[in-house]
Design brief:
By secondary structure, this protein is mainly beta. The protein contains four helices and 15 strands. The protein has two domains: 105 residues, Alpha-Beta Plaits (2-Layer Sandwich), CATH 3.30.70; 110 residues, Pseudouridine synthase (2-Layer Sandwich). The strands form two sheets. Strands 1, 2, 3, 4, 5, 6, 7, 8, 9, 10, 11, 12 and 13 form a 13-stranded mixed beta sheet that branches. A two-stranded antiparallel sheet has the order 14-15. The two termini are 28 Å apart.
Amino acid sequence: MSADSENIPLHAGVKVLKVCKSGLIALDKPEGVLAHPNGSEDNARSLITANYSLEEEAYHIRDGAGGIRRVWLINRLDGPTSGVILVATNAEVATQAKVLFAQGKVSKAYVAVCLGRNLRKLRGIWLDGLVKERGGPEGVRSLVVRPGVRPRGPVSQAITHFSAGDKGQGALDLVVLNLEPKTGRTHQLRVQCAEHGHPILGDKTYGNFDGNKALGSDRGFKRLFLHAASIELTVQYDGKPVKFSATATLPSEFKDVMGTPKGPSAGKDGLGKVRL
């Protein structure tokens, strides 16, 4: 841990993965921890246990001398999703990184355990139009635009590259999907997996609820099986490009729910896709 990440009041379950001289910090967020509080009542269960400015998109940390130290939140993960999330202690670098995310110039890899192991295609690209609306158990959800149906709001394009990994052992009708989103829409991976016939195990908004019960909660697993495995981006710092990447180890529940024997941590193939 460096001076950049010291004195940041991280949630007890959050781990520092990597610190960059540019001020970027990669954190490993557990399932159930919020990327940011929606109000002060959420501070204790958020990534950093401090007040948060929605306008600045930054945590405000008191320095003990009457001042405020800002830590900017770069990207977001849904509360039920675990894995790599970025913050920054440098305002200029934070702005750069957010622009790179908005422009689709950040490499992101996710791993999901999904229902239905018989995929029509083992790899490909999903292209969907999504509309965001209020409602559902999380307060907001995304809907796929259907042909001939007039959307009830602005339509955003969602693009995700997918490939199949391991299949469930024995009678477990599960498959691991390696997902590389090229856009960053609300609940993008969750709604696209469901739309294309392979809802993510444990998803309470878009999932197959009977399947969740049979293959998840009945076997002692109650989480959403979606994990942000890695992030890579390049920012400018001191007039030079600085490449920054971080990887978060796959939680043990992913192997356990698939019926995969316990062994070494997940590895990476040449494409940077995490496999069990």
